[in-house]
Amino acid sequence: MRVEARFDCTNHLQTPALGLRLWGIRHLRAIVCATSRRSTLLSLFPPNPNIPNPTGINDIGDSDKYNITQPNFPGFPTFYNTIQTTEYAAVQQLHDRFNYRNFLFLTLPPLDRTPGNVASSAPNPNATMVGWYNSGLASHTAAFAAANPDSNVMLFDAHGVLSRILDAPAGYGIKNTTGYCAEYDAPDILTDPEKYGCLPQEEYFWFNTGHLTSHVHRILAGELEEFLVGKGR
């Protein structure tokens, strides 16, 4: 999910900016945004849910060359702070205007370890950039929690969980952490991966260039469930 379109001219037209999500909550709670490519469901929240905020993946990915392409670029830590300041101000509206009190933030996954990045001598985003972004998330989440003592504010370390899987994949039944099946979107890829010279999908970490397989999602969901139970959620 992106924060605001003014921060990056992305080609991910299917990805709603957080500001638009808030607009959708205010007016209909569920609103469809028609784009030139497709229609995207922006917001559909029950009256009092946990609000998950996995914001940042597209923001860091779509801006990873701004130090080269943008004149007077202030540097990535400053830029990321600007993005996150806007994000958390928008989330504050969920608290102030719509009375949400449960907020779940997720750190970025190890984007420096995608198939394209592990094969590159100059990965973008690199581990330092991901670290900067996640450090900013931790700081902003702590500040948000301090400013809203009536709320349950949580930060889940998705980066840590996914890094642990990448570091010891065999324990999770995963054999390939650096590539993916080139025919990942074939209609029979789940039932006949050998036809395409591929492993079964659950033996890959990466589904494609930057998304996780369903198997990894299930592992992550289990870890998140344990985290939420531990928090009494």
Question: What does it look like?
Answer:
- Mean pLDDT is 83; it is low at 19-47.
- Strand 1 and strand 2 form a beta hairpin.
- This protein has helices spanning 18-27, 57-62, 66-69, 76-98, 115-118, 127-147, 158-167, 214-230; strands at residues 31-34, 39-43, 50-53, 102-106, 152-156.
- The chain contains eight helices and five strands.
- The radius of gyration is 19 Å and the shape is globular.
- Helix 1 (18-27) runs parallel beside helix 4 (76-98) and helix 4 runs parallel beside helix 6.
- Helices cover 41% and strands 10% of the residues.
- The strands form two sheets. Strands 3-4-5 form a three-stranded parallel sheet, with helices on one face.
- By secondary structure, the chain is mainly alpha-helical.
- The chain starts with 17 loop residues before the first helix and ends with a helix.
